[in-house]
Structures are given as C-alpha cells and as structure tokens.
Amino acid sequence: MPFELGIALRYLLTRRKHSFISIISLLSIVGVALGVAALIVVLGVMNGFSTNLRDKILGVNAHLIVSHAQGAFTDYAARQEQLASMAGVSGVMPFLYSEVMLSTPQGVKGAALRGIQSSTAAEVLSLEEDLVQGSLQALGDSGEQAGIIIGQDMASRLGSGLGDQVNMLTPSGEQRAFGFTPKIKVFRVAGIFDTGMYEYDSSLAFVSIKDAQEVLGFERDAVTGLEIRLDDVYKAPDIATEITDRLGGFPFVVRTWMDMNRSLFSALKLEKTAMAVILVMIVLVGSFSIITTLIMLVMEKKQDVAVLMSMGCLPGHIRRIFMWQGSIIGFVGTALGYAFGLGLSYLLETYQFIKLPQDIYYLDHLPVLLNPLDLTLIGLVALLLCFLATLYPANQAAKVQPAQVLRYE
Hints:
The chain is α+β, with helices and mostly antiparallel strands. The protein has 2 domains: 3-57 and 264-405, no CATH class; 92-223. 54% of the residues lie in helices and 21% in strands. The protein has helices at 3-14, 20-60, 77-84, 118-124, 127-130, 152-158, 198-201, 209-215, 236-247, 257-260, 262-300, 302-310, 315-351, 372-389, 391-398, 402-405, and strands at 64-68, 89-104, 107-116, 131-134, 146-151, 165-176, 179-193, 204-208, 225-230, 252-256. The chain has a 6-stranded mixed beta barrel, surrounded by 4 helices. α13 packs antiparallel against α14 (372-389). The longest helix has 41 residues, at 20-60.
C-alpha cells in the first residue's frame, strides 16, 4: 500500500465518530451516491421509453422503404427477390398506401389504408404479434368479401367487431352526369390489432395488395413501394446506401426509419442529454462538499501535516494524501450510488410499482433499460468530478509551512 494511501485511510478510520468533519464526509458520500443513483435510474427510464417507442414504431413500420419518384411502379417482384437476398436483410414486402374513409351504421372514420402481402408481412411487420382478434392469413382468404384488419381504437369508433362489415370509400370513382361518385367497397373485419399507440390503433387499416389495387382503381399490378426489415436497425443507413447502388439510384428513393422519425428521436435524444446535464449537477454538489470536507480537514490536521513535513515528507506526499482521501470518499459514494441505482432499477422493471395512466401514456409502467455505456460514463464522470474536487484542498495542504505551524508548540 502506498504511504500516502495509508495515511489517508488512517485519517478516515481513526477520526472521532461524531466530529463535525465526519458528518461532512458522510454527507459528501450521500450526495455523490444520490447523484449517481439518480443518473442511473433516470437515464435507464429514458432509455426504456425511447427503446420501447422505437420498437412500437418499427413494429408497424419497416426499417427501410424503397419508393419510386414517379409514384406507383410495376416491376417490383424481381427487385423484391434481389433485395431479399442481400446480407442483413430479413424480409422484403411490397405495399400500397392511400387515404380512405371507413364507415358503418355506428360511425365514420378516416383511415390510412395499407395494402400488404400477407405471405411476407410477418417477416417485415409485427402485425401478427399485435393482433388481439383474427389472423393475418385471413386477408388472403378467397371469399365473397375481402378482409380488412383495423386497430382496436378504430374498431371502437366504428362499433365493429370480428366478422362485421365495413364500407370503404376511396378517392377513385367515376364522373357521372350528376357529379363525381366515390367508389365504395364492402370489407369484412378479419382482424383487430392493438399496438398500444393511439395514433396507429385509431388510423391504420390493412388489406391485401390485390384488394387495395381493386378498390383504388389500379388497372395493373402496381405498388407504392417495398418495405424492408433488417437484422440490425442501426445498420439502416449503410444498407440504404447499398440498396441505392444496387437499384441504380434515381428514380428509386430509399428512406430509413431514422429519416422518417428524425424529429421524434432527436427530441428524445435532446431531452435525455438535458436531463443528464441537470443530474450531473447533483454529483457536482456532492463533489463540492468534498472540497469543504478536505479544507476543514487541512485546518484540523495542520499540526500533523507540519510534523510529517518536518520528518522529511515532501509537499507532493502531502498533496497525494489529501487527494487519496477525497478520491476514497468519491469512490465510496459512487459505489453506493451504483448499488442503490441498480437495485431501484431492478425493482422498477421487475415489480412495476410505479403505474402510469393509460389514457395519457401508451405504457402502464416505467420501462427501464440500462445501457452499459451510460453506466460506464456515469461512473467515470462521478469519479472525475470527485478527483477534481480534491485538487484545491490538496494544494493548500502542500503549502503548509512547518516552521510557522510549530513555532509555539
């Protein structure tokens, strides 16, 4: 054990139990521990929210979308096979998109219609997992009426259940002598899904591509674009570039999930950064209390410091003694903060004792996701702040003049 560390530990362990400096040291440890614990819990909750939200969004939407600059295109089958064979791609599905109006005797609701390929939809979307009634395969069933899958909130608005009929009004229609007549097609509710996000559950409707082409008035087999799912969502920009090269660039346009949700995830990232800066201030307060503790210790131990220096201790040794002592306080506070923060995060995730109102949030509890990088940075920042807090008191201790302190002893 280094000489300076031994002296620092002796000061910490042999001080009177109820001395004022001992109380200040304890408060310093508590301050650092609370700051570290708060950082761990808050960043864990914010990571949980953003990850859960990302999974919800990417469950209904693809990781990449390939579209045509001029609108719908027909030669999609060969390109679908070409992209499905790429490394990192787990699924490719053609789709059609349009806005329609759904109506029943109980209500009317505007909807975002998506024509999907039922045979490959499970490889790209989590729609099958989100279904609470019905099945995805029912879209492809050949019957008298075409099938449609709607969200739970939309089903409540329309007063429809599984097997009920829904009328779809589309912008495509016929110009007749008495005016424009919209096209109407009757669908049978083949499934009801619940993603937990109101904007999706209240506005999305899924039908087969064939039915979508028919109701939208397509005279040929054309689609709006291709939806692609990846093995790793964070490789989307690199794979998008590779797809663009394979397709030859314009008129094909490739967009990633990051591009389509940039404002939302940028806001979440900014909020997380702002919250981290605010909570670091708590650790900073704890480190300032370390300065107070060490300054008071220097004043109390001036005679001991003078004796050590008169016995040959160099100023560098004295400086390191107080740096060790402040670092020990910071280390103990950080370790306690990790124990409390990780423990509380585990309890929050396991027992979910903090409930959220479901009419406001899309979750009923606080999600917690601990990122190893965040945990490492929290510890490093806390220890660095505590170490910096030792520099000024340690320098003051190193400037003690033994002759002046011991003159009247």
